[in-house]
Amino acid sequence: MGSTSDWATLKEASLILESFGVAHESRVVSAHRTPDLLVDYAKTAKERGLRAIIAGAGGAAHLPGMLAAHTIIPVLGVPVQSKALSGMDSLLSIVQMPAGIPVATFAIGVAGAKNAALFAVAQLAREFPELDARLEKFRQDQTDAVLGSTLEP
Ligand SMILES: Nc1c(C(=O)O)ncn1[C@@H]1O[C@H](COP(=O)(O)O)[C@@H](O)[C@H]1O
């Protein structure tokens, strides 16, 4: 993520990955504030064995695109909800990448963080089939929770 202030959003991705038993790391890396670290992080991602990078940032959210520019590891972009423009700035900074450097862009805020993690798990499940059963269970639990919910009179 671009800043520690994004952690409230991105920790939701971390919690999902943890619940699926997917090893991951949570780091602050910024295209603007730590540009050299960003290049190093992206360029060493493949040799360190990363399978995906969930990159969340707000405002002028150049982080996902710049990571994608420096690695062929899939980058999943999460627009963090900004105070000034409610995350529309983050979304538009991430989504409209030039052809050739893809960033898979998710919804603004916590929903996007959760779905980026679930998407990463779904991708990993092609390589680690035991994750399939956990994804099926996640979906079933979710359905059961909705069907079992009651409304206050
Ligand atoms: N968008 C970026 C990048 C980047 O794109 O590299 N680095 C930091 N930021 C964003 O600045 C916002 C405000 O950061 P602070 O709260 O630290 O001032 C955060 O949402 C962060 O993602």
Automatic annotation (TrEMBL):
Substrate binds at S3, D6, R33. The keyword Isomerase applies. GO terms for molecular function: 5-(carboxyamino)imidazole ribonucleotide mutase activity. It catalyses: 5-carboxyamino-1-(5-phospho-D-ribosyl)imidazole + H(+) = 5-amino-1-(5-phospho-D-ribosyl)imidazole-4-carboxylate. InterPro entries: PurE_ClassI, PurE_dom, PurE_prokaryotes. Catalyzes the conversion of N5-carboxyaminoimidazole ribonucleotide (N5-CAIR) to 4-carboxy-5-aminoimidazole ribonucleotide (CAIR). Belongs to the AIR carboxylase family. Class I subfamily. PANTHER family: PHOSPHORIBOSYLAMINOIMIDAZOLE CARBOXYLASE, PHOSPHORIBOSYLAMINOIMIDAZOLE CARBOXYLASE CATALYTIC SUBUNIT. This is N5-carboxyaminoimidazole ribonucleotide mutase. It comes from Terrimicrobium sacchariphilum. The lineage of its organism: Bacteria, Pseudomonadati, Verrucomicrobiota, Terrimicrobiia, Terrimicrobiales.
